[in-house]
Amino acid sequence: MGSDSVSTSTKPPQGDPSASLLSLNAGSLSDPSNPHQKNTANSVIFTSLILVTCIALAAASAFSFLFFSFSSVPRTDSSSASLQTTSRSLTKLNHPVVLLISSDGFRFGYQFKTHTPNIHRLIVNGTEAETGLIPVFPTLTFPNHYSIVTGLYPAHHGIINNYFDDPKTGEVFTMASHEPKWWLGEPLWETVANHGLKAATYFWPGSEVHKGSWTCPPGFCKFYNGSVPFDERVDTVLSYFDLPASEIPVFMTLYFEDPDHQGHNVGPDGPEITEAVAGIDRMIGKLIDGLEKRGVFEDVTIIMVGDHGMVGTCDKRLIFLDDLAPWIDIPADWVQSYTPLLAIRPPPGFAPSDVVAKMNEGLRSGKVQNGKNLKVYLKEKLPSRLHYAASARIPPIIGMLDEGFKVEQKRTEGQECGGAHGYDNALFSMRTIFIGHGPRFARGQKVPSFENVQIYNLVTSILNIQGAPNNGSVSFPSTVLLPNPHKF
Ligand SMILES: *[C@@H]1O[C@H](CO)[C@@H](O)[C@H](O)[C@H]1NC(C)=O
Ligand SMILES: *[C@@H]1O[C@H](CO)[C@@H](O)[C@H](O)[C@H]1NC(C)=O
Ligand SMILES: *[C@@H]1O[C@H](CO)[C@@H](O)[C@H](O)[C@H]1NC(C)=O
Ligand SMILES: [Zn+2]
């Protein structure tokens, strides 16, 4: 199948279903109102009319129930794919298996940078978020990876930044902290283990942490080591499919650092990005080949995502905290993180609201370089769509930067242009990809963008297990997945 079939596929029909229902009602009810009926049997006719009406209404409501259940599954194009109304049954595996793949910093649109035949195989025969996956705020690696596997916003899963302080104990969280106290919520590998099922993690933030029934079992839980070649990661995941059927983990993660680190170096438009995207595509190809050789490609559910996007940054879009000195002194040790998430915790004795007011006064004065591109908030006053307040770990003062701007303490030697992420998750540049391929995903289907906290419920639905409470919507999976009439 040529990749041009992507462009021929259409959006799900958005027509008003009630219009169809009205025409159905009219059709069912028109028969009894025959103008040639005799008067002598008026009451009989009237009674039967009411009866028929009742039956017709019942039929109509039954039909409407069916109609709505099916119309909640977005339709595909005019190809044979549109005939799919239920999931495909497993042929070789005896249990659904979900392989969750993350390509770090894979900004939505990178899939068009170069020839990506393997990613496009997943898109053509799978379900894609047509305008990308929406990350959570802050659009950083650890908060987002952990939202994907817990279905929780960072305020609720506890990983509110890549590094932060615990205000109560003064302890510092870094990306190497594996103590369970930091990692709240219930990640998918724990949910799976709690159901007596097996999971395997080839890197994912939080996967090394022992929680509930998850003990990070040797051989199935890899401690993070960025030097392990991507090929080796793929080979190891493929080797799990050589295990006896009952031993195959039902949930697996696979993580690639690319193209995030190239993005930071050169921004989203550098040629290094194109190369890294081609490299990720080769890994997807290797994976598909390996699964096909084992006869399980059509059985395995592959969910390919990124954690966030990337935007170009340059030195002339800088804001310096020292420039605010005429209004308020912000010493470096008040600042938990600078850019793109400015997070400030003033010491006791300084009212956060006072600090916010003075900072904003300076930023709006017209006398601070790029001042209008930074807005400072008490965290409770941030737009509620950011869900970034309900945790003591979140410092009381948060600065929101405009796209591509950076904040630093003081003027230093100029640096090269590069790339960054962490900005408002409403920015299109922060979006990443979502592709689902497997028995529960319609072929060639496009769905509207959604937040990554929905993925937890999607995975538990595919695995037929009960998930923990989370911030995804309970009804979301039925709008994306094919209904499952098979037991497995
Ligand atoms: C999509 O799936 C069909 C049915 O299995 C297969 O014939 C076709 O080659 C697949 N297309 C791509 C691009 O892999
Ligand atoms: C990390 O992986 C590399 C490459 O496989 C290996 O040489 C190295 O020993 C590993 N480091 C640790 C700490 O395991
Ligand atoms: C998110 O989930 C947590 C835990 O279930 C809950 O306490 C919180 O109210 C939820 N927040 C939103 C915005 O849904
Ligand atoms: Zn990242």
From TrEMBL:
The chain crosses the membrane at residues 44-70. Residues 1-12 have a biased composition (Polar residues). Residues 18-30 have a biased composition (Low complexity). The keyword Nucleus does not apply. One of its GO terms (molecular function) is hydrolase activity. It comes from the Eukaryota. Keywords: Membrane, Transmembrane, Transmembrane helix. InterPro entries: Alkaline_phosphatase_core_sf (IPR017850), Phosphodiest/P_Trfase (IPR002591). Pfam families: Phosphodiest. Residues 1-35 are annotated as: Disordered. One of its GO terms (cellular component) is vacuole. The keyword Translocase does not apply. This is Ectonucleotide pyrophosphatase/phosphodiesterase family member 3.
